Amino acid sequence: MNNNDMFQLGTFENYKVRGRCKVIKEYEHQIENFANRLKKPGLGAFMAILDDPALIDEPDGVRTSPNQVPGDYAEKNPVELSEKRFSGIETPVYRIPTAGGLTTASKDGAYLEIVHGLDVGSGVRIRWDFLIGESSENDFSLNDFALIDIIDAKNSTLEHREVLHQTTDIPLGRWSTGWRSFTWRSPKKFKAKIRIVVCNGYSFSESNPPTLDQLTAARSFPSGLLIDCVSIA
Questions:
Q1: Percent helix, strand and coil across the chain, each rounded to 5?
Q2: Facing residues of 203 across strands?
Q3: SS (H, E, C) 136-164
């Protein structure tokens, strides 16, 4: 049992957290329409924001410099979700399929992780709301996303991956998904590393590789992820 499943301790106790994340009581997603702008937890008094999309400089959407990020965030910088090889070629940590035969790759973002023993039939439930930082209406080459990985902590084998949402799947005129639930049941007994990730990303195809401008722009207007609970039973 996770005794901080709804962040009721007001902290990230029991979790490993990377990036611009914090525990909050409510969140105002300024670019969302008024009826859906104010976000509140549905199960308890607290929730978590991963990669706060409000931490940008207007109007170009560049991330706020680390020395301007308030001290109550887990880290001052986003976590890098791409790696550079000795050749200088950038390799994304995450690659997911996107409509139109495209691939979307991660650039930077944030994640929350918990290690917990699971039995056969143990259930994992995560309540989430994906907040986008920019619309893909005019530019499908930029595409943020959120996903969940369930990893065997003993041998690092990926047991399950589920993409929660992508920017390109958000209907025009909306800037968030609203609260939704992820559920999964374990097929075996093992120690699981449950990682919830939100990524700034970019889309490309084999015939149309990403440009340098695209790789730079992919770091702007980050999307965020609200987490209401991480329930394991």
A1: 10, 45, 45
A2: 104
A3: CCCCCCECCEEEEEEEECCCCCEEEEEEE
Per-residue model confidence (pLDDT) at position 81: 96
Q: Which residue has the tokens 């009826």?
A: 35
Q: Report the distance separating Cα 157 and Cα 155, nearest Å.
A: 6
Domain-embedded: residue 2: no
Residue 194 falls within a domain, yes or no?
Answer: yes
Q: Is residue 112 within 8 Å of 227, Cβ to Cβ? A: yes
Q: What's the number of domains the chain is made of?
A: 1
The answer to the question of residue 94 being in a domain is yes
Average pLDDT over every residue of 32-49: 93
Q: 135 lies in a domain?
A: yes
* pLDDT tens per residue, range 14-25: 999 999 999 999
- The reported pLDDT for the residue numbered 172 is 81
Domain range for 198 is 16-232
Q: Are 131 and 226 in contact (CB under 8 A)?
A: yes
d(CA 222, CA 233): 32
Q: What is the mean pLDDT of residues 123-129?
A: 98
Other Cβ atoms within 10 Å of 15 Cβ, number: 22
